[in-house]
Design brief:
Glycerol-3-phosphate (1)-acyltransferase; endoplasmic reticulum; membrane; transferase; transmembrane; six-stranded mixed sheet; two-stranded parallel sheet
Length: about 325
């Protein structure tokens, strides 16, 4: 049985919509401004421009951020609730009761989400909607995000962990569950409002990891991640983004500014795939369960795309 959560049935009050726009825009503007600020601060420090004291003052927020670790916070997540109304957020949990019971009984899961998008506003809204769940199941992020001053503190409220294979293995071996974005930054540059493209064919490492550790995989589809913002897919910034595995390219939404489009978004959690525990999986084992995963992701897309106006006529391509 599906559990459905909707945060907007009618048009929200204008103040809620406006606050939601501000909250969402803080994240998108920060992703553009923080790298520029860090580069400018570094240049000021190196050149001691305009003076040594002035350059130190400019760089002070950066130094403070380096010292302060990321702090996951349910309190702050609850303050971001207007964002749910701005986007008309909805969530569907296909097998929520059984998954929760399994977790309570000691079973752990690898939650696999797609598409990545420029910024995962659907994933952020899911965390805001259920902040306690976000604290129990961390989200894996690129090392660059976790190590970049200011950015690590801003995004750290969502309970992020390093997405390295070593760290994921450590979490799963310790009995924890984790959410990962399968396509990563490579998928960002496939974002398009006309069609949906997932970078998935070559992404089989998560299946191998799940089989080895004996954890089940739960597919998640994020409708709206690729439509609320558009990205510049070429040029030096795009190339740098790919190398650093972090969004550094120029992107835009409403009014050609980094303001996300206020469109309906949908968070869909599928059923566990039922992976077996195979300590030394063969390539055939990995390919088999990867194909099962791709089929389930396709089913989720086709089953629920009609609920999202911007997706009704979209076709899904798995690259």
């Amino acid at each position: 049985m599906c559990q459905q959560t909707t945060h907007q049935k009618e048009k929200p009050p204008i103040h809620q919509w406006f606050l939601g726009m501000i909250v969402a825009s803080i994240f998108s503007f920060a992703y553009l401004i923080i790298p520029i600020y860090l580069l400018s601060s570094a240049c000021c420090l190196i050149l001691r421009y305009p003076t040594t004291n002035a350059s130190l003052a400019v760089a002070l927020p950066m130094f403070i951020s380096i010292i302060i670790p990321p702090l996951p916070s349910t309190f702050i997540l609850r303050l971001l609730k207007p964002m749910l109304y701005y986007f008309d957020y909805e969530a569907i949990y296909t097998d929520d009761k059984n998954v929760r019971q399994a977790i309570a009984g000691g079973k752990n899961f690898l939650f696999a989400a797609q598409p990545h998008g420029i910024l995962s506003f659907v994933g952020m809204c899911a965390a805001v909607s259920k902040p306690d769940d976000a604290m129990k199941v961390p989200t894996a992020a690129a090392s660059a995000v976790l190590q970049t001053p200011l950015l690590k503190n801003l995004m750290g409220i969502f309970n992020l962990v390093d997405a390295s294979a070593h760290n994921l293995k450590k979490i799963l071996k310790g009995g924890g569950s984790v959410l990962i974005y399968i396509g990563g930054i490579a998928e960002l540059f496939k974002s398009c409002r006309a069609e949906e493209r997932l970078y998935l064919k070559k992404r089989k490492g998560f299946i191998k990891l799940a089989l080895r550790e004996g954890v089940d995989v739960v597919p998640i589809y994020l409708f709206g991640n690729t439509s609320v913002l558009s990205a510049l897919k070429h040029g030096p910034l795009a190339t740098l983004s790919r190398k650093l595995q972090v969004s550094l390219t120029w992107f835009w939404g409403k009014y050609y500014l980094p303001i996300p489009r206020d469109e309906k978004i949908l968070y869909v959690v599928g059923k566990p795939l039922g992976l077996p525990h195979i300590e030394e999986p063969t390539q055939e084992d990995i390919d088999k369960w990867h194909a099962v995963y791709c089929d389930e992701v396709t089913k989720l897309f086709e089953l629920h795309k009609e609920r999202v106006p911007t997706y009704k006529h979209k076709k899904l391509f798995i690259d």
